[in-house]
Amino acid sequence: MVAFGKKLKERQIEEWQGYYINYKLMKKKVKQYAQQMEVGTQDRRHVLKDFSRMLDNQIEKIVLFLLEQQGLLASRIAKLDEQLDALQQEPEISHITELREAYRTAGQDLLKLLYFVEINAIGLRKILKKFDKRFRYRFTDYYVKTRANHPYSQLQQVFKHVGIGAVVGAISRNLHELQDRQGRSYLSIYDQPVLPLQDPIIDSIKAAVDRLSNSTNFLNFLAQHALIMREEELPAPIEEQVDDSNYHFMSLFLNLANTFLYMVNTYIVVPTADDYSMSLGAAATVCGIVIGAMAVAQVFSSVYFSAWSNRSYFRPLIFSSIALFLGNLLYALAYDLQSLWVLLIGRLCCGLGSARAVNRRYISDCVPLKVRMQASAGFVSASALGMACGPALAGLLQTNFKIYKLTFNQNTLPGWVMAVAWLIYLVWLCISFREPLRETEENTPQESNQVQNDRLEKGLQQPLLITSLEKPSDEDGDPEVDDSEEAPEESRLPVTSIGSAYRLLTPSVKVQLLIYFMLKYAMEILLSESSVVTTYYFGWSTSSVATFLACLGLTVLPVNILVGSYISNMFEDRQILLVSEIIVFIGILLSFNVFIPYSVLQYVCSGLIMFVSAEVLEGVNLSLLSRVMSSRLSRGTYNGGLLSTEAGTIARVIADGTITLAGYLGRSRLLNATLLPSLLICLVSIASTCYTYNSLY
């Protein structure tokens, strides 16, 4: 794997080389500072001041060149606009075509400028991270905090492009106008090819602007929920062709169907879990254990499914379907067997069939980059739809009859319905799923014995240890990899254990995982105890509880549309993150039973505030998590998606256990007893966010 410094040099535009961030020089300075501090010739205060000054100079060089190039582009576009105005008098098709090509050329130059800014922004982030790692000092926090909002700082002009939007608007508007004018020509379609409605260069420019400014749309925002992690790569002016030979739409659809059915399976039992527990002779609050048993098993199943997906996708999905079929069958039979243990074993089997790690991995590995965002958004949409359909379906299953001593009522029908659904899915899976091709040793051409022998002889002639003088170096003699860093190959390898993954977690990542834990805990408390709480305070029926939960689930997509299309374009992710946490805190606070009597309006409004803000928080949280997490956690068994899934699943397990334990205090104290831990965890997460706020960019 090529080191970042070399990749940076390779991607530079030759005539602009003097205006890029001097990553190599700054890397040398970091190493020099470390050596000076070791021997005591420099103190930390002087190092921070000197390095800050160097960064300021580098950023100023970049920004001034950016402004100069924008001015040149603006002058070119102004001259082209004059020619466009002249065409209004004498519209000739040849002149229109020439002018369109001139605008496209200007667009290509603008695209090069956008790549220039993006490469420098990545280089700046890399060198800041390197400094923090070498000195174990949060220099990034200090630098961003002191420069972000200062009136003379140019830092934001690198991360938030300056004036480029006006140039983009001018080029796209005039190209569109020329296209319309050409369309109104009296020439035949045979004289001029049919032009597309949208020029490809404009699409490329808009994509580059979105990447640079971190602006997003609804599709992007949904895709971030899926946490399909990718490494931060340097942009290339020419898009590489993606090998999509492994892509099979029906296989992708089956993965999304698995996600949907699993979420339905998770939440279909929530409205009736308390009644089912009481019908088996247990307390209503045992519903926490019944609901949480699925999450307990998922803690373990996520790991082995993630490892299994390294070798196959089809077999894990088959196993998942069988486990869920058997689990739902046991769940339904527990009523006639009058066994709480059978009920719990059934839910555990369902949890063992959680293949969400496989679904995520399939999208990450087998879906082409050009449609991966849509697939990731589909994953999140399927989850949200399943979350809404589960309780809604439970509300429709209000009947009671027997067939051959088997009882079909509101308690058992969720199990029977899901068992049939998983059986149908299993048949569909066997017929339609196509296992992607994988590179194996058998497919790798074998080298001849002579070549292997030659390599062996050459290897025996090499020294066993390579001295520091023989380390790979660039043309100036600077080692490409210094001793303080991981070798590029090693730094790119996926981690092989939970312990290794944990050691890669920076404070920012730990805080984001804590936030994810908090929001999943709060949501699980709200959803799992809803049936018990509403029955006790308001006397709601199963249908009423199911309707309430379904309405909560249906808010997911509209809220994501609002946040993804508008709010995320107006504010930074970290700002939305902190505000969402505060609103979750307010929602939890309003849910407490302080005033008597406890009203339906208070419960519904506070629950809605908490749930919606938690949904917003989840999307932004996972977006930030994917940016601050190490690239080594972007693939392999112990990846970032698995870590976040485990954090959320453990939160659900603890929340469901809390409900059952709080039940011993009595139903009258259940609500406040379960909300108190949520409130405290939320407070801790808000404080932690404030502590790491400046590193979230």
UniProtKB/TrEMBL annotation:
Residues 469-493 are annotated as: Disordered. The chain crosses the membrane at residues 252-270, 282-305, 317-334, 340-358, 379-401, 413-431, 513-539, 545-564, 576-595, 601-625, 670-694. Residues 2-145 form the SPX domain. This is SPX domain-containing membrane protein At4g22990-like. It is found in: Membrane. The keyword Membrane applies. InterPro entries: MFS, MFS_Domain-Containing_Protein, MFS_trans_sf, SPX_dom, SPXM_SPX_plant. GO terms for biological process: transmembrane phosphate ion transport from cytosol to vacuole. GO terms for cellular component: plant-type vacuole membrane. Keywords: Membrane, Transmembrane, Transmembrane helix. Coiled coil: none annotated. Residues 473-488 have a biased composition (Acidic residues). Pfam families: MFS_1 (PF07690). Belongs to the major facilitator superfamily. The gene is LOC111025712. GO terms for molecular function: transmembrane transporter activity. It is a multi-pass membrane protein.
